[in-house]
Amino acid sequence: WVNRPFFARYDDKAIWLNELKPAFGEEKFFFEDELKQMHRKSGSLWTARGDAYRDHRNFPVNI
Q1: 30 neighbors 6 (Cβ within 8 angstroms)
Q2: If we measure between CA atoms, which residue out of 61, 15, 18, 26 comes closest to residue 7?
Q3: pLDDT tens digit string along 8-21?
């Protein structure tokens, strides 16, 4: 997903990915299906810092 921008509805209080909503009437972001599949296969997700996140919707925007 490198260098692929995505659009979210503006929310000045959103600081986490799970607080963002897709823009332009979309129901989900382009990466959600693949991310869910990756999570199901591995059981967890890891950031570059090595922190485990059990739920992809808890990824902070500013890691």
Answers
A1: yes
A2: 26
A3: 999 999 998 889 99
